[in-house]
Write a sequence for this structure.
């Protein structure tokens, strides 16, 4: 395979990853890592390094549009970043010494668990007031309802969401996926924030989380410019398109896309990790 063909395929795959990451809050890493490891046989640590760079690009490419349109809860995102960045640094150190096949198995397992958790129904009717702690920290917000008005919402279970974000950050550093799946689960299910706000706030956060661990991968030499550059360009294009599509997208369809893609890739990663093909 020539360099030109390799770069072209990476651009197409990265574009799809950026589009998916922008629409679902996954960050694109769930597509980039299997594409590189399973499709091209790239060492998973180099795939993680490139994925972290792509995650930063996805967040940068879509977060600006979401913030401008009023979907992202900036105050909530900055509050939860305290937890995710701490976990990301710890996870990046662990990844340097963990066996590659074990990382692949953990990667797939976490994605399946995250997908299953996303279908756990929220308890009770939505409370626009939120919890007392959320009100004290002014974490509650509002988002466009699509009809020219604004829909208010409250934030719940602040401690539970903060704890899950610490785990999400650790997995981001360990797996290089931006942990967007767990971020969406934490904000959507635990903190009971509307799904569109969950995905957009996740996109706002994942770039900072990835940057916290990407420095460690760069120091260790696991970020290859020849792989990372086409990935970044493709992801930026996909993220830009996704940010335009999200406003009119139905949350139910986003969940279907989220489930199909994540489950397929998770099974592939677990199988190849268990058979030591990665």
């Amino acid at each position: 395979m020539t360099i030109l063909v390799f770069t072209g395929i990476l651009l197409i795959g990265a574009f799809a990853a950026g589009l998916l990451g922008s629409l679902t809050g996954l960050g694109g890493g769930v597509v980039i890592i299997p594409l590189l490891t399973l499709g091209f046989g790239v060492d998973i640590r180099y795939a993680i390094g490139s994925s972290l760079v792509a995650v930063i690009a996805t967040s940068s490419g879509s977060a600006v549009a979401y913030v401008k349109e009023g979907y992202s809860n900036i105050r909530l995102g900055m509050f939860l970043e305290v937890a995710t960045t701490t976990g990301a640094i710890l996870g990046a150190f662990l990844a340097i010494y963990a066996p590659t096949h074990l990382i692949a198995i953990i990667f797939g397992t976490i994605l399946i668990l995250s997908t299953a958790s996303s279908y756990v129904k929220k308890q009770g009717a939505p409370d626009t007031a939120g919890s007392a702690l959320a009100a004290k920290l002014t974490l509650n917000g509002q988002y466009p309802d699509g009809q020219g008005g604004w829909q208010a919402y409250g934030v719940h279970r602040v401690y539970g969401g903060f704890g899950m974000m610490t785990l999400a950050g650790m997995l981001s550093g360990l797996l290089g996926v931006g942990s967007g799946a767990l971020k969406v689960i934490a904000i959507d299910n635990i903190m009971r924030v509307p799904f569109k706000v969950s995905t957009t706030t996740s996109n706002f956060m994942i770039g900072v989380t990835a940057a916290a661990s990407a420095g460690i991968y760069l120091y260790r030499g696991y970020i290859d410019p020849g792989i990372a550059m086409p990935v970044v360009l493709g992801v930026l294009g996909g993220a830009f398109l996704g940010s335009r599509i999200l406003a009119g997208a139905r949350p139910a369809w986003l969940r279907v896309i989220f489930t199909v893609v994540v489950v397929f890739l998770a099974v592939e990663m677990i199988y190849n990790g268990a058979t030591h093909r990665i």
